[in-house]
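Take one protein record:
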Amino acid sequence: MNLHQSKLYFEDIDRTLRHVVGMEKLFGKSVLITGATGTIGSFVADTLIRFNHQNAAKLKIYLAGRDLEKLRMRFEECENIDFLIYDMESPIKFEVSVDYIIHAAGNAHPAAFNGDPVGTIIGNVESTFALLEYLKKHCGKRLLYVSSGEVYGQGDVSISAFKEEYAGYVNALSPRSCYPLSKRTTENLCVSYWKQYGGETVIVRPCHTYGPCMTTTDNRAHVQFFHNALDGEDILLKSAGRQMRSYNYVADCVAGLLTVLINGEPGEAYNLANPESRLTIAQLAAKIAKAESKKVVFEDPTSVEIANQSPIAKQVLDTQKLEKLGWKPAFSIEEGISHTLSICKGI
């Protein structure tokens, strides 16, 4: 699948750009994106590349990842970009000056962080510290850290939506907590670094994000639903699916992320979700099934799948803080699902 051959994909990027607040402030700047082949990072990259092409913005874009060949294949037709080898568990080996860093690399799905909980913790914390030091060394302006809505842990289900100051509960004795706890720690590192050294940091906490950039290795439930649909199969649900979640189409996610990069207050975190896309896992499965004229079928999970399941009953994010920056979503859940399926099928 070559996303750059999809007219609909570029139409979605254009809608993203129309919903970013203050995009013109990036004219003549330089941006480094880690995790540039991931679900969010790759759409950020395509959005900035498109902005450059349409506006002659003289924006220097550096795309960083572990696999240089994968980067080249993903962005082979793009101009005015440089590829950098970057492994979050290894020292930084490149030397380029950047104004902004968007740190979107990391183990973000259960199979990855359950398989390497120690590496997940160390990777999240040490990679961010190294990038903060790098930004300070090169006199950069700001680092945006892509955290997660999982930092709220097992919150009070009676609360309608979690605000940024809400703490929730995360079991420190569960290896699966390597992900939310290391995200929490890294958020605090970003804030502490800004207070102590003056390097600006901002944080976004995306909810469950979906779209045509989803990776084949991502084993989260909502991603597997899309894989089922694209393979012409019924949607397979491995639980009752009663857990309530915020969802966000990747185009809206990236519009919000860039709005925070440009306008967010230093040392602050911003929830990143579509306030109109709050569904149970089963409801999302039903919507994806309906879009492809399929049905939802239930199957008992394996022991491995049970271990990968989140203990979080409710993960609904309050987005008022982000909306006060001027951002608003552009895609309904139905449109996001439809566009994801159409783009992935090359329609």
The radius of gyration is 19 Å. The CA atoms of residues 270 and 321 lie 6 Å apart. Residues 3-210+248-274+316-331 form a domain with the Rossmann fold fold (CATH 3.40.50.720). DSSP finds twelve helices and 13 strands in the chain.
